[in-house]
Amino acid sequence: MEKLLDNLEPRTVLLLMSSGILLISAALFSYVIWPEIKDYRDSQRTRTVLTRVAGSEAALDDEIAMLRSKVTSLQQELLGDTASLPDNQLEAFVIGRLQGISWRNNVQLLSVKPAKGGKIHIFHELLFDIEISGDYFDLFNWLNEMGQELGFIVVKNFAIRPLEWNKSDPRLKLELTIASYRNSGDD
């Protein structure tokens, strides 16, 4: 090895030593220093985000309250007020609500006949055969309000016919069957 070094020119030895030092420095920077710099930058970003979040705790509380009210609103839209009622009180509740909706919309509630429906998957069906009379727009408003107040219901049968033949403003009779679905509890 000494013989090889003696045969080399001093510039070549200097160049080899410089290349070796450069190579070791590059490896040291790539595998030791650069990962630590990246970790430090990531830590700084995380600290900035956490500082911002900690400073906006009141905003988070407001957002949580808003989301809770939205969940309550969506449950009301889907289930209405019937979700917490036992089955034996559900019929009286629905009939009472239908009467209130009828009064508010100038519609006469002629009859309501509750009946048990079938079982569909994990739900059991509660049917209501309803007859009402009123003018067209009052019936339309009655149907909209019924959907809002009673939550998710399905109109299974629907028939509308004139009750009287007054040409200017005929009264109509609406016969419909609505179905409400409840979880049967049999999993």
Structure, described:
- By secondary structure, the protein is α+β, with helices and mostly antiparallel strands.
- The chain is 58% helix and 25% strand.
- The protein is built from 5 helices and 4 strands; from the N terminus they run ααααββαββ.
- Strand 1 and strand 2 form a beta hairpin.
- The radius of gyration is 38 Å and the shape is rod-shaped.
Average pLDDT score: 83
Inertia-based shape: rod-shaped
Q: Element order, helices and strands? A: HHHHEEHEE
The spatial strand order of the largest sheet comes to 1-2-4-3
Strand content: 25-35%
Helical run tally:
5
Helicity level: 55-70%
Uncertain ranges: none
- In total, the number of strands is 4
Using only CA atoms, what is the Rg?
38 Å
Biggest β-sheet strands, sense, barrel = 4 strands, antiparallel
Query: What's the N-to-C terminus distance?
Result: 84 Å
Structural class: alpha+beta
Architecture blueprint of SSEs:
Elements: H1 2-7, H2 10-55, H3 57-79, H4 87-104, E1 108-120, E2 123-134, H5 136-150, E3 153-162, E4 172-183
Antiparallel strand pairs: 1-2, 2-4, 3-4
Helix pairs in contact: 4-5
